Every structure is written in C-alpha cells, then in structure tokens.
Amino acid sequence: MNCLPVEFISIVPDRAAVRAHGPRCAAPRGGWRGHVVRCFRREMGGVALAGDSGRRNHLPHIARLLLPALLLLPVAVAAHDIPVDATVQAFVKPAGDRLHLLIRVPLETMRDLDVPIGPGGYLDLDKLAPMMPDAATLWIANFIRIYEDDEPLPRHPQVVAMQISLPSDKSFASYEQALAHVTGPRLPNDVKAVWTQMMFDVLFDYPIQSDRAEFSMEPAVDGLAARVNTVLRFLPPGGSIRAYEFSGNPGLIRLDPSWHQAALSFVRMGFDHILDGTDHLLFLLCLVIPFRRFRALIPVVTAFTVAHSITLIASAYGLAPDVGWFPPLIETLIALSILYMALENIVGGATVHRRWIMAFAFGLVHGFGFSFALRQSLQFAGAHMLASLLSFNVGVELGQLMVLLLMIPVLNGLFRSVVKERMGTIILSALVAHTAWHWMLDRADAMRRFPFQWAALSPAFMASALRWMIAIVAVAGVAWLIDGLLRKRAGKSVTL
Predict the structure, then answer these.
(1) Looking at residues 434-455, what average pLDDT do you find?
(2) Confidence category of residue 453, pLDDT binned at 50, 70, 90
(3) β pairing state of 85-95 and 227-234
(4) In 3D, which of 355, 433, 294, 406 has the Cα closest to residue 425?
(5) H or E stretch including 246?
(6) Could you tell me the residue range of the domain that residue 273 belongs to?
(7) How far apart, in whole angstroms, are the C-alpha atoms of residue 86 and residue 197?
(8) CA distances from residue 295 to 282, 291, 359, 413 in whole angstroms, order as listed
(9) Is the pLDDT of residue 481 over 70?
(10) Among residues 444, 280, 287, 471, which one has the least CA distance to residue 366?
(11) 414 and 265, same domain (yes or no)
(12) Based on the domain organization, do 433 and 293 belong to the same domain?
C-alpha cells in the first residue's frame, strides 16, 4: 500500500471511497495508526529542506521528537479487510401491499463500520446498535434492486428490524423462524461475541401494488466479500417456494418467471454458450471444412442438433450418471470428437452420409457437455423446465447458424484466393487436431484424479439402466429411419 502524503496523514477513507474501491480502501495490516506512523517516518526521513543541499538533514530528529505526540492522536478505524468468503441468506415474501426482504449477512462484511469493542475484546452490542441502520442501508439495501412488473421499487426501503446473531443460530432455516428471530429481543450486551464471527440480520419492507405481481430481483451483493454465495428463497402467495443458490452477481432474476420470460432467458443463454464454447466452435469448423454448402450441411447439422437435444434433456431430468468422473469423461470425449473429425478431414474421403452419422454420435456426447453448463442455471426456469431446455436448444441453434453464416464464406474465400482447398483443409485440420490432442490429454489427466467405482446393483440403478436402454433403442431407431430416408433420397437423385 502506498504511503499517505504527510499533509494527509489524518485522512481516512469515507463511505463513498470504500463503496467505490472496496478492499483498496480497507485498513492496512496493523491498523491506520501504525500505517500513518510508518509513512511519517519514511516521508520525514527522506526529505531535505529547500536550500539545504549538502547539509545534514535534521528532519529525522524532528520526526523522532514528534512521534510520541503522533501516537497520541486519535486515528479512527474506518474499515477493515474484505472477507474472503461470505454466505448470504435471504427470503423475499410479498404480502398485501408490502414486500418483505429478510436477509442475513456476516457482520464482518460491513466494511465501513467502526466496530465497538468492549472489555475482553468482545463486541459491544449497545454501542453497535445505533450504527446498524446506516450499515444496513449502505452495504445491503443500496446493492439490491427489486422490481414489480418491471418497475423498480424504492431504492431505500424501510428498515423494520435488525438483529446481531450468534454463528450457531439456525433460525434462517425457514421464513417464519427467521422473522420471529429478527423481530424478537436482541442479544444481551454481556454475550461474549467475537465480532468477526457474528451475523447481521435485517428485515426490509418495500411498498408494492399487489402481491400477485411479477417480481424480479438483482442481488448485486458480490462486493461484500471476495467470494459470495447466496441462498435466496421466494415465497409467493399460495404457499409454494422458489429456491435459488448462486455465486457472485447473477444479474436480473425472475423470481417466479412466466414461460415466455424463462424461454427468452434460456434462448439468450444458449446463444451465448455456443459462442463462448471454443470446443463446440472447433467441432463445427471440422464439420464445415469438407462441406461448405448449406444444402450438404443440413443433414449433418440436423443430426448434431437432434443428438445433443436428446442427452441435454435426459441429463436435465436426472438420467445422467451422478458421479465425479463423469463430467471430465465427457470433456475428454468432446476433445476426442474434435480430434477424430480433424483427422478425418486430413485423411479425406468424408461423405455426407458418413459425416451425419458421426455428427449424431458425437452430438450425444456434446449434449452432456451442454447440460453441465445448464446445471446451475435450470433453477431460474421456475416451473417451465422443458420449455427452458427447448429454448436453450433454440439459442444454441441460432448461435450455430450465425457461426455457419460467417464460417462458410470465409472458408470459401480462403480456399479460392489464399490456398488450394486440399492444402487448406490439411493445414486447418492439423491446427485443430493439435489443439484437441492437448485438450484430450489434459482432460484425461483430470479424469484420472477421480476414483472409478462401479454403481451398486440397486433397484434405482436397474431402473436407470432400463431407461437408458430404452433411450438407446429409440435413438438407434431414429438414426436408422433417417439413414433410410437419406439413402432413398440419394438413390432418386442418381436415377434422375
């Protein structure tokens, strides 16, 4: 941390600075007093008065004389170090013309707080009580936005009740227990409370028009710590509960989304995912290089789409193996699929018939990869899981279509103007194969770290195996049917 200039040694960061810069404005190790003293020694020991060049510098002696007086100056602690981890628990409950937000955060996340410490180094709850409303507004309410029918609710809600809780308190297991705890009597001042272990509970009230409206929330509380995990539960009228768990800032959350809201959100998610997934883009490139005509690519891309849709939906409904080695296995197989397609392009002789079969087989693997990306996001689908899954697939296909629209003209131009088609195919495929080979080795190494165990032959395992056998037979039947139709169509084309 840079030293403060001498003329500013009494300045400490204000709330705006702490809010804007976070841990950079937190108190240094050893406190502000020690930091100011160290800076004073450094500044005074290395500065010469104008015109005193070549003379002995007496400022270090002045500094030593002033140092005892400096130690007596009151230097306030305006902040403390940002916590590494924090868990936030929250309930959102609309009732009548009010929306209740009941939230619990670690007390140590309130960085702009001069924590009063009493005898024995324990928290002085009586002196802390007057500071709590400002801390609740500054560090919690200011970073949470709630919307009713897409209209923002007041930025500063009413602070109804607050409570400092022991780390052993379990009242946030349910809304009723948490409400009774927060509105109940506070801890006595003689409790031996270590302030870095205490929890800060707050009940906010927002005015609303109707508890039947559509509510959404943007919980931007990720600045409370380096890593923030949030457990959010929405309790709409009628007794149902929507539970969400996420890390950092998830953006806008539809607390009880309609089907079209969920669909639009997942279309966008699928579109972004295909553009962010380098391995999927390289697989598409390998599919496209030999066949740079949309008509030839239709059966290939369709087979890939149908296949990854099957395993994506199956995985979302719990049919995928729930073991630690399965995700790295799928990631390894995805890299293998890219490597195989690239080598096939190098060898040459790929046909549309062979390519769509391989695209279908590898599409089943890629579908599991898509499901891993959706695992944490399906909670935001509300009651519309199937519609959200199909919408995610639509977004993926839109992303693939955009990639193809860009990729095909670029490849055609490259092979027409820069390099011959065969040589260009070999060069591009070799670069992709080299990348996929290293991915495969790295992912296989990660997979070996997970112990492989055969599943126990339980009734649940047998039922799951039976479902997968039925699915495999159904997939094989669909593939056989599509293959027959394509062969018949190819035969008619030859006859004509």
Answers:
(1) 85
(2) low
(3) parallel
(4) 433
(5) strand 242-247
(6) 261-453
(7) 11
(8) 21, 9, 16, 18
(9) no
(10) 280
(11) yes
(12) yes
